[in-house]
Design a protein that fits this description.
Strand 5 and strand 6 form a beta hairpin. Strands 1-2-3-4-5-6 form a 6-stranded antiparallel beta sheet, with helices on one face. Helix content is 13%, strand content 50%. The chain contains 1 helix and 6 strands; from the N terminus they run αββββββ. It has 101 residues and is mainly beta. The model has no long low-confidence stretch (mean pLDDT 87).
C-alpha cells in the first residue's frame, strides 16, 4: 500500500501543471479483478503507462506487483523518463537523471 501512495505522489508531481493547458491525446485502460493496465498521453508532452497484477492470490503473501514508466518535459526542454517497479521490495525508480544509491 505504501508503494501505491509513493507512486501516486510521484506521478502527481511529474504531471503537476495547469491541467487547463493540456488535452488528453490518448487514454487506454483495461482493469480486471487480478490485473490492470493503462496508458495516457497529453498534449503537453507527458505520458504514463503502467501494468499491475496480483501475485500469490488467496494466500497470506498476496500482493500487487506493478511496473511502468512516465515521461515529462522539464523546464530545460529535456524529456525525462522514469521507469519503475513497485512490488514487495518497494518502489524502485530508474532514470538517467536520478541518482543511484
Amino acid at each position: 500500500m505504501k508503494f501505491i501512495i509513493v507512486f501516486v505522489a510521484l506521478f502527481a508531481l511529474a504531471l503537476a501543471s495547469d491541467p487547463r493547458d493540456a488535452e488528453t491525446l490518448r487514454y487506454d485502460s483495461n482493469v480486471e479483478p487480478e490485473q490492470y493496465q493503462y496508458a495516457v498521453e497529453t498534449s503537453d508532452g507527458k505520458s504514463a503507462q503502467e501494468e499491475g497484477h496480483l501475485e500469490y492470490a488467496g494466500t497470506d503473501d498476496e500482493a500487487i506487483s506493478v511496473q511502468g514508466s512516465y515521461s515529462y518535459i522539464g523546464d530545460d526542454g529535456q524529456t525525462y523518463t522514469v521507469n519503475y517497479v513497485a512490488d514487495r521490495n518497494g518502489f524502485q525508480p530508474q532514470g538517467a537523471h536520478l541518482p543511484v544509491a
